Amino acid sequence: MLAATVTWENLKINFTAEQVLLTEVQNNLVELEGLIAHQIEDDWSEPNLVTAELEDILNGIWLGMTTVEQLGALSESDKVTLSQLHSNLRQYPYDEIYSFANVTDEDIKNFEELRGILRDVGLGLNISINANKDSFMAQANALNKKIKTPLN
């Protein structure tokens, strides 16, 4: 009976860990791709929609890393991948509390390239997404490999 309880607890922990990463990071990356597409169509009339979403993603990665690690469901390789993703995305302008980011023409070019990269790794609107942690971590690894460092 105890083994069944432990297995059930592990399932709940893994499900919770997966949901934090998928909702706070994967879904927001898809939304970021859509916002960049919208800004391209709208001649970048409101670039801070993109920078605000990027702030949400950065916070989501941090939340995901700390929460999933506390649940004991974060492997060392996943931690490295998420840390690298956080570092790579911090190269782009993002909003901070009480402060909108200044977005230059070079930043816009970089965001447009990021949109293409997101779509290439399967993170975009109207793209079927496999909503599980392993699939997302593979996407995050691919994203890390495709984002130039430094951007400029």
Explain what the structure shows.
The mean pLDDT is 91. This protein has one domain (2-146). 70% of the residues lie in helices and 0% in strands. It is mostly helical and 152 residues long. The longest helix has 40 residues, at 2-41. It is elongated. It is built from five helices and no strands.
Set down the secondary structure blueprint.
Blueprint: H1 2-41, H2 48-70, H3 76-89, H4 105-120, H5 133-146
Shape: elongated
- Determine the oligomeric state from the structure: single chain
Q: Low-confidence segments, ≥5 residues, pLDDT <50?
A: none
Q: Helix fraction?
A: over 70%
Number of domains: 1
The major pleated sheet works out as:
none
The strand count comes to 0
- What is the CA–CA distance across the termini? 58 Å
Work out the helix count: 5
Question: Which range does the strand content fall in?
Answer: under 5%
Name a few traits of the molecule.
152 residues, mainly alpha
Concise description?
The chain has helices at about 1-40, 50-70, 75-90, 105-120, 135-145. The mean pLDDT is about 90.
